[in-house]
Amino acid sequence: MIQYQRKLLLLFLFLSTSELCAQSNADDFKLSGATIIARDVKLSATWYRKYLDIAIKEYKPQQYVKMKTGDFHLFIKQGKSVMVKSQIQFPKGKKYINGITKIGFSTNKFEEVKANLIASNQKILEDITEDKNLEMRYLLTADPDGNQVQIFDEPNPIDSVVTQAMFFSITSSDYINTMKWYEENIDFTEIKTVDETKIHYQNLLHKGDVIFEIIHLPYESLETTEFMPIGRELAGFAEIKFKSGQGKSSTFEMDNNANKVMWMR
């Protein structure tokens, strides 16, 4: 009887420890990095510094720029013979591209960011909108290569600017398996839907403070291998990185849409 009780106690301690570890893992989970392929690294870096206050840490002309805000590292890489999405010659019947299409930042200077964007005639793709599912205000803009950047309002009374990377979006024609991949491999969980106006084309997931949006594409969408000429690169978000715990080095994996993803833990 004592041996049986001891086994039950050990099992309880094991399950409790596992649950605590999982909770801790989610609590410190962060969007820690992204790589952008750009036509002009100086122009792109200037945009992210000017409007989002992301600091330039290293600059090698016509090669790359390393930038940082908080624990997030933005690596902007000079592409080779770069194409932007507006230059793509879509095959007949095709209109969309699978891939990482947005990254997002929260800021405590939301109104100032919007005012600066408008004053400089930057594109506002979607004006201030209240996302009832996330309970946050946001606006949508674009960097010099047309990459979509979603900016969220995160009020904070301190005087200094606080910019935090906390959002990314993937467009996928196989969104069910995309959601399954991120649930099984990185432990994302779906956010309960309050506002169902976008439910037919959008899923929202989260882990810790990171929000993941999946946009459903029709099956007529493209993989980059279907249209990219040899020797050219597409401007856009090439890689994303997550970090939790000690953030030990890891290797990139390919998700079900061939996006490069790294989870350092």
The SSE order reads HEHEEEEEHEEEEHEEEEEEE
Distance between the termini: 41 Å
The chain-level structural class is alpha/beta
Fraction of residues in helices? Answer: 10-25%
Radius of gyration: 20 Å
Q: What does this protein look like?
A:
- The protein is an alpha/beta fold.
- The protein is 23% helix and 38% strand.
- The protein is built from 4 helices and 17 strands.
- The chain has helices spanning 2-27, 41-52, 110-119, 175-186, and strands spanning 30-38, 55-60, 64-69, 72-78, 82-83, 99-107, 124-131, 136-142, 148-153, 163-172, 189-190, 202-207, 210-216, 233-234, 236-243, 253-254, 260-264.
- The strands form 3 sheets. The chain has an 8-stranded mixed β-sheet with strand order 7-8-9-6-10-13-12-11, with helices on one face. It has a 7-stranded mixed β-sheet with strand order 2-3-4-1-15-17-16, covered by helices on one side.
- A hairpin with a 3-residue loop joins strand 2 (55-60) and strand 3.
- It is globular.
- It starts with a helix and ends with a strand.
- Residues 11-24 have low confidence and may be disordered.
